[in-house]
Design a protein that fits this description.
Strand content: 35-45%
Radius of gyration: 24 Å
Structural class: mainly beta
Length: about 700
């Protein structure tokens, strides 16, 4: 994200259109429709908005491995010097009665904790880092963690081994798109994993001047679930158009059932804020080689920094509109919007809202965060909503989880203000389920750049940076169990770095050009692992000792609450001979639901289509499903996959089942096959949430685990 004094990266994309009649997928068109609801009355379409279809953009193919890409130069880092809007909120909101009391630290210790990208890593013969700040972001999938900074990407396995490291320019080298994406990638990266399509989406923006069009968003979508070797679709999306010649800053993305949603703050040639723009990219088409989109232009500078909701865990009910959340610019309130897309008749799409959700009053923070050993104060990034707005669907309850930086008082510390907003049945409740200013019992630390996520049980964790005049900036996280009192992070706080002496970390105590650097970072990222829907993954930045080092580092860690059990787990009910009836698995869900059905399907010898499927049988006494293979399977390499659907679906395979696939291990002898262990992720409810796993069994002495690409 860019705002005042930001080292930059550009994005954008006038985007994809809707001529979908020629596509194989049944999703068409492009237009966005938003409908938003209040508790008391329905919302109307947001006044002044325009709805349009973006141009259809055909992907450029990058095949082969992204490990060891050829060297290419990194462009000079551009600082646009954007002028963020300043808003005055009146009247005041709720009295600040929700300041937290001290809490004993009970947060779990990270089980995985490793170094991420650092400024001076080598990407194509140049530093991987494109300047200051790094804008650290990442997400987790079934078998990988992908992190990005300005202006590079790293892919890791889930034990922390780096599998690939490259700049955005290296990724786009040779694409010959004829746009700035080819060689002028400037940052503001985003990384999202799509658990429905089992695909990865990474992006940044490209430009040569923030005041001179054109501006592009450079979006890369993995062709398979293997982001290292499976190939990528590359889309150079124009972010401005003839009627909106604006620079698209601070792009944010969210995965929903029908689309990849994207937002940006748009700045005119004078670098003054003009409007928020929202895109919906048809998700299935985007993951198949063509980007079509519906675009919302708010045409107003009275709204700022929308966050699109991104799902993890149980899907929203069919037909649920996408939610977007912003901080009100005039009230102490969370603004919730709804984007209803009509892919058949895009002109029928709507964007409605806002529904104002009450919020505790605060002081807007500025460049106020102290560090020891220097008078330089760090930029808090103000009050804007920070990534991400996570959607959860737990039982009958639907929620949005959000966080941002506030200040308790005009002279007080900065704090994390987080909230859970009820959006059950698509109706936005105007009072939060819970909300808190987190100061860890007013311990004197300033906290900023928060990111929040929740697991499938409703436990939550928020990560952030923390500093004051005696403690150098460190990476921390705090959390709550679903059983803790509302509006508290009842498990307290812990330091994420592998050492406990936070005075051993470094300051941002050096110059960027002719002035002192103050931009610590524009965001961090907390995400929930789709494999078990329990494990939290967090990435943020820090400076190593000694103070004054100008080389930022990033750190990635994973942890989970001991009380969280995987949403779904599998265990072999063998050993039985592969060719005999009865071979299969016992499947256990964390929450048994008679309206659900567990399904099994398989392919043979690496085939790309499913050879058969079977409905699993539920045993009310044990609370488990039994999934048996038929007797007529001959010797072959078999790929198995489970998913969960609604009972009425009868395990129909529609082509949109896959949430993820993962490597798993089998123990075998020449004729018998037994699954040693297999944990899979969360799915539920409305229909075909696929969950699970791939394993290839090779009869005749050994079993090979292989991953299925969809």
């Amino acid at each position: 994200m860019n705002h005042r004094g930001h080292n930059i990266y550009q994005r954008k994309f006038v985007i994809q259109a809707f001529l979908v009649l020629t596509l194989l997928f049944s999703m068409q068109g492009s237009v966005v429709n938003i409908a938003s609801a209040q508790t008391a009355q329905p919302q109307s379409v947001l006044a002044g908005t325009d709805i349009s279809s973006g141009p259809s953009v055909v992907a450029i193919h990058r095949d082969g491995s992204v490990a060891g890409l050829p060297d290419v130069p990194t462009p000079a880092y551009i600082e646009p010097g954007l002028n963020d809007p300043v808003f005055l909120k009146t009247p005041p909101g709720l009295a600040p009665t929700k300041i937290d009391a001290p809490v004993a630290p009970n947060m779990p210790t990270p089980t995985i904790n490793f170094e991420g990208i650092k400024l001076d890593d080598n990407c194509g013969g140049s530093n991987c880092g494109g300047g200051f700040p790094p804008d650290t972001v990442g997400d987790v999938g079934p078998s990988h963690y992908i992190a990005a900074v300005n202006t590079a990407v790293a892919i890791y396995n889930k034990t922390g081994t780096q599998l690939a490291l490259f700049s955005f320019n290296q990724l786009w080298n040779g694409a010959a798109s004829g746009t700035y994406c080819d060689a002028n990638n400037e940052g503001d990266p985003t990384v999202v994993y799509d658990p429905i399509g089992d695909r990865w989406i990474i992006a940044d923006f490209a430009f040569t001047s923030a005041s001179v069009a054109p501006f592009y968003e450079c979006i890369a979508v993995s062709k398979t679930n293997d982001p290292v070797n499976g190939g990528w679709y590359l889309y150079a999306i124009r972010g401005d158009d003839a009627s909106h010649v604006f620079f698209p800053d601070y792009p944010k993305m969210g995965v929903w059932t029908d689309a990849l949603y994207m937002t940006a703050n748009m700045f005119n040639s004078a670098l003054t804020f003009a409007e928020v723009r929202v895109w919906a990219f048809n998700r299935q088409q985007l993951e198949s080689g063509t980007a079509t989109s519906i675009i919302i232009d708010t045409n107003s500078n009275a709204r700022f920094s929308f966050l699109p909701a991104t799902l993890r865990g149980t899907r929203p009910p069919d037909g649920r509109d996408e939610f977007l959340v912003a901080e009100s610019t005039t009230l102490y309130a969370y603004e919730v919007y709804k984007f209803h897309t009509d892919w058949v008749t895009p002109a029928n799409s709507t964007f409605t809202g806002p529904t104002n959700v009450t919020q505790t009053s605060y002081t807007v923070p500025g460049t106020v965060i102290p560090q020891p050993g220097t008078a330089t104060r760090l930029d808090s990034l103000g009050e804007r909503m920070m990534m991400q707005a996570q959607y959860t669907h737990i039982g009958a309850d639907e929620s949005l989880w959000v966080a941002h930086t506030t200040r308790v008082s005009a002279a007080g510390v900065t704090a994390v203000q987080w909230a859970q907003i009820n959006v059950t049945s698509g109706t936005v409740n105007t009072t939060p389920v819970q909300e808190q200013f987190f100061t860890n019992g007013s311990d004197g630390l300033y906290r900023w750049v928060p990111s929040i996520a929740a697991d499938h049980q409703g436990d939550a964790a928020v990560g952030y940076s923390a500093s004051n005049g005696t403690n150098t900036p460190s990476i921390r996280f705090a959390g709550r169990l679903v059983t803790d009192p509302l509006s508290t992070l009842g498990q307290g706080e812990t330091v994420m770095l592998p050492w406990t002496d936070v005075t051993s970390t470094g300051n941002m105590n050096f110059n960027c050009g002719l002035a002192a650097c103050t931009r610590w970072g524009d965001y961090s990222a907390m995400n929930v692992d789709p494999v078990d829907n329990c494990t939290f993954w967090y990435v943020n930045e820090y400076y190593p000792a000694p103070n004054g080092s100008s080389t930022w580092h990033t750190r990635i860690a994973a942890f989970s609450f001991p009380s969280c059990t995987p949403y779904i787990s599998f265990k072999a009910n063998g050993p039985d001979r592969h060719i005999n009836p009865g071979y299969g698995w016992d499947v256990t869900l964390a929450t048994a639901d008679a309206t659900q059905k567990v399904c099994l399907r398989w392919s043979t010898n690496g085939g790309t289509s499913w050879a058969g499927s079977a409905v699993c049988t539920y045993n009310a006494g044990t609370g488990k499903w039994t999934c048996n293979m038929p007797a007529n399977i001959s010797s072959a390499t078999i790929t198995y996959q489970f998913w969960i659907g609604a009972a009425a679906d009868n395990c129909a395979v529609t082509g949109n089942e896959t949430l993820w696939s993962a490597y798993n291990t089998f123990a075998t002898n020449p004729t018998d096959v037994q699954l040693a262990s297999l944990n899979a992720a969360h799915t539920n409810g409305s229909w075909l949430w696929l969950i699970t796993t791939l394993a290839a069994l090779l009869l005749g002495g050994f079993a090979v685990l292989r991953r299925k690409s969809h």
